[in-house]
Amino acid sequence: MPDARPYRAEDPGQPPSLFPPYRSTALRSPRQPLVRVPQTLTEITGPAGTWEALMGPALADLTCHARGLGEAIGQRIIVSGRVLDEDARPVPDTVVEIWQANAAGRYIHRNDQWNAPLDPNFTGTGRVVTDAQGRYRFTTIRPGAYPWGNHRNAWRPAHIHLSLLGPAFATRLVTQLYFPDDPLIEIDPIANAVPLPYRNRLVARFDIDTTEPNHALGYVFDIVLRGRDATPWEP
Amino acid sequence: MTDDPIGLPHNPDPRPDNQDPALFGQTPWQTVGPFFHYGLPWKGGADLVGGSDIGARTDLFPEEHDVLHLAPPRGPVRGETIALVGTVRDGEGRPVPDAMIEIWGANAAGRYHGAADDRADVALDPGFIGFGRAAVSAEGTFRFLTVKPGPVPIQVGGNRWQAPHLAVGVFGRGLLKRLVTRVYFADADANDEDPILALVPEARRQTLVAPRVSEDPPTYRFDIVLSGDGETVFFDL
Ligand SMILES: [Fe+3]
Prior knowledge:
The complex is a heterodimer of chains A (235) and B (237). Chain A is mainly beta. Helix content of chain A is 6%, strand content 24%. Chain A is globular, with a radius of gyration of 19 Å. With 237 residues, chain B is an all-beta fold. Chain B has one domain: Aromatic compound dioxygenase (Protocatechuate 3,4-Dioxygenase, subunit A, Sandwich), CATH 2.60.130. In chain B, the strands form three sheets. In chain B, strands 1, 4, 10, 11 and 12 form a five-stranded mixed sheet that branches. In chain B, strand 7 and strand 8 form a beta hairpin. Chain B is globular, with a radius of gyration of 21 Å. Chains A and B meet through strand 1, helix 1, helix 2, strand 3 and strand 9 of A and strand 5, strand 7 and strand 13 of B. Strand 1 of chain A pairs parallel with strand 13 of chain B. Fe (iii) ion binds next to strand 8 of chain A.
């Protein structure tokens, strides 16, 4: 019989749904308490191992995948790490999807009205599947910071958006990676929704061993998904 | 850190960061923000039976930057094809134009794709995975095509059953983390015995039960209210 144990609850590092400094949460977060429910077969299953059929082939190098155009402009970086569970066991064969702004801080998205330049050679999206050791690796461009309308003179720290499903519906995670020594992290409402010290889990580490000589700076970022809890639930 | 020949540390001293062993634990959630459309939803992501490209919003980015995948056609899918439609609204009743919905469901026989459901007596459907993703329209609407799921047990090997349902995740700008809910079908008989619905205060249960609003294909309406009057029931898993 397969492992029927549920996945662990949120740990104290998870942000609340309502965080008033991030103004858009005011009308978009529940007012009623969440209803605590056990994890059934529905929540402990998930579409693992189906990524190619669903989302298509991997795109691991964002610097040159815009339809065979030229090389993207900006600081070339490698972002690499492992996807683990809370017991530090690797999570293999799970998809990691990323999207980000270009080196100037501009998204190709039509609703991004900032007047920083677009890079015709940079789309800013990628997806890879973790290997047997849970490892993933992207080559991309270091994104720029960008302004947003949350409050006067609000700027998002440079970040890469990441999306993971993990092995089950219950392990879904969407997060953002920040860069070390970015002064904007500590004044960003979205990053600040995560209390310290947990916020620092979102800060990648520069790593000279991931850095490739004469090619790209390397950053390490491990992603930890919810681990298994003690016993299955059966009423 | 080992020193290199020029006498400097190999790596700089770390600040507290992702690699700090003292901080090891769940990676915190962050919002998808408003600009996920060119990366997350794929063409056909909202069509779980295959054959159409619904789910993506290719109007929101330039065609020359389109690297979204088009889901390959699936084999024939067993069971009754249904549509799930709805609108996402905020605490003032306004449509939310930048949300994303994911669904996860069993096949028509009640079997989940994936290793955690290994019941040999309930058949997998090779044409059906059961996972879908849709960006909502500028009017906050979504439309999935899928099969009506069969009843599923609470656990493999258990003998108590859940009414047919789909697990639903809601993402968007202003949502720091996913909101999790479920959709049940108003014309199913087993809803009254469902062990999860039974945990929901009775006055709010109808927010999870989708009425059948039209035919060809049978179409169920599941509106999602993120906050305030008529707020959808969301779960803490
Ligand atoms: Fe962003």
